[in-house]
Amino acid sequence: MKNQDLVDYLRSCGVCEICQLRYLKARGSEYKDIRETLRRLDVKVNENEENVGDTVSTEDQPTKKARVSTCSTCLGLFSEDFQRDLLQGILASDFAKYDCQKIVLAISLPMILQLRQLAMWFALQKRFGASVDGINPPDVPIKEAVKLILHPIICDKLDKEYDANGLMINIDVTHSLEAGEVEKLVSLNREAFPAKAAHQKRIEISRGLLEKQYQPAKVKAETFEKYYQIPCASVEEPLKLVSIDLQGPLVCVAGRYRKLSRELSHTPWILNGQRLMEDSIEEIIIRNVGPHFAEKLEKINFMSSGREDVDVRCLGKGRPFVLEIPNAIRSSLTTEQAYEMEQAVDKSGKVSILNLQVVAREELTHIKTGEEQKKKFYRALCALKEPVTVDILQKLQIPESFDIQQKTPIRVLHRRPLHTRPRTIYSVKAKVHRGNPQALIIDIVTQAGTYIKELVHGEFGRTTPSFASIIGQPIDIQALDVVGIDLDWPPKVNNAPSVE
Ligand SMILES: [Zn+2]
Fold first, then answer.
1. Set 81, 99, 163, 309: catalytic member
2. CA separation (Å) from 161 to 32, 370, 477?
3. Annotation marks residue 85 as catalytic
């Protein structure tokens, strides 16, 4: 089959130039200059002839066509009129509210387009015989063509870039004939797939079903033709835009926090409907970082690499955290803005944050996985009933790792199942407190998930061995700090203004 013959036939069926290119299997940038591409494919372009359907406009060819009929296969989806309506619709929506450089179009297309594609497929088989495959469609599918044709045009007009994770512009499109066509499809489906129809009471007619089941290899042309015309009839009315709906991107903001207070919970602490603590790390960070990115702070999800108890501080380089912000109105953060947020959080006096930055969604795996394998670094202030002896001090210098068996502590049994877990303690290093001979400062490196308080006092033998069992006398924990977390993420950034 020659390209010229194919195009001549398509033209006689009322197919627009862009769709002619789809049937010539044009790719990527070949849609930019349609006539040039047609010429290159050895197709005669009749300059004087009124095009069937619209084409993408070029500067020197203004749109003043007297009468333009609707393309029989795309129903005007690729026409200039539709592009204009689409652009106007987007600009009339909440679009201006979103400060996002990246966008993605999600067009929900009526099924009539798929039916027409199939009708044309049958028509080409009739006309050109075996050179037209029965399994692989003869055209570049409309969905793909939307990406190749509409995306670049709309991005260009709005001065945005395409990104699958960008601001999603949900576009609902319909056609006046859609309902009637789908109704016929129900009958056709019963006839074309009687076995399947017998099994199911009601068959869901969907785009997916059309894509999977409806091709000349599976449906006979004669059956199809009982319900639909081959080739498809031309129509007057083009597709209509029903609605445009925007959904901001999911933005992830990472950083590290230090917890400076021994009276602060990780997340809002509410018991039987009553707040037990007036603030939390999560709330302090969200109320200072969130408003820049989103209108609704309730939807923001706070995650961190582990957590500490209310009375435990987290010092050193701090603990990695991420805010997952859905439907964001803004996706960027300058270092100045980040620094302001860091300063604002610091003002709470309870939490301080650093390394604040926007990160890619894929990087969240750092926080979500591998928690068990990570090492944790603690400093504990512990007290004995009598002054520390050299013997005790020596027993609490353990440079090599050892394993403990730890039953779920009684204090967390209300939210964790009762288990005995093995945990590795990598090292223990104790020294006497300078101001108090009965007190010890102990640096401990453990596997994540170890309960440190119980590791110290043993909780009536529920953790073995424990520091108490190792030294053979009671030892209590007075205060605990997390001094390091074995996760080198997010990358260090310095948001503070440089000093000249
Ligand atoms: Zn078309």
1. 309
2. 17, 35, 56
3. no
